[in-house]
Design a protein that fits this description.
Largest sheet: 8 strands, mixed
Order of helices and strands: HHHHEEEEEEEE
CATH architecture of the largest domain: Ribbon
CATH superfamily of the largest domain: Umud Fragment, subunit A
């Protein structure tokens, strides 16, 4: 069993772990000294050496020679199967254009959830118009902008300039948006209806 690191050693180890995962390489002694705001390299070298003796890391002779920590290697292996999906604040006219202005967050999720991650985006549900379909306020829905919408699909659509989440209904050559709550009226476009994404999944936060 490894001896427990001291509080200072644990802080150095945590910094190395975060740095390695972010940069794919180890911090130099100088970078660690500057981060911890100490005057000399010696104190950092002593803690790194102590961590090496205790079995928490392995170090070579070059400035960035601390080998990848086991915890970092495991996280990187896991990350290969994780994708980052943008959560959009709004869907602008012209399609689900992802830009820094529209991204309010990102959610990480397993690749196996999506047949095709590229073109996927997420939106946080507001309102109760789709409760009959099991979609409630606060749910995070995933949509894909490259799927051809079919009759009956739940979609994100821009109708007469306003974005909404509804079920697409095609009838007699025309399309309208159906709410899944009797307290809401269906939406018939006066001028335009543009489907911007077909819903492919949903995540609910129970906390």
């Amino acid at each position: 069993m490894k001896p427990e690191p001291t509080k200072k050693q644990a802080k150095v180890l945590k910094f190395i772990e975060k740095y390695q995962f972010k940069n794919g390489a180890s911090p130099t002694i100088k970078e660690m000294r500057e981060h911890f705001e100490v005057k000399s390299d010696n104190s950092i070298l002593k803690m790194v050496k102590a961590l090496e003796i205790k079995g928490y890391l392995k170090k070579g002779d070059t400035p960035r020679s601390i080998k990848l920590l086991d915890s970092v290697r495991e996280r990187m292996d896991t990350a290969k199967n994780i994708i980052s999906i943008p959560v959009l604040s709004t869907i602008p006219a012209g399609g689900a254009a992802v830009s820094e202005e529209t991204i309010i967050d990102r959610v990480e999720i397993g690749k196996d959830v999506f047949k095709k991650a590229e073109g996927s985006f997420a939106l946080r549900v507001t309102g109760s118009s789709m409760e009959g379909a099991g979609i409630y306020e606060g749910d995070l829905v995933f949509a894909h902008s490259g799927i051809e919408p079919q009759n009956g699909d739940i979609v994100v659509a821009l109708v007469d300039g306003g974005s909404t989440l509804k079920r697409l209904v095609k009838k007699d050559g025309k399309a309208y948006l159906k709410a899944e709550n009797p307290g809401y009226e269906d939406i018939y476009p006066a001028e335009s209806l543009e489907v911007q994404g077909v819903i492919t999944g949903m995540v609910r936060n129970y906390m």
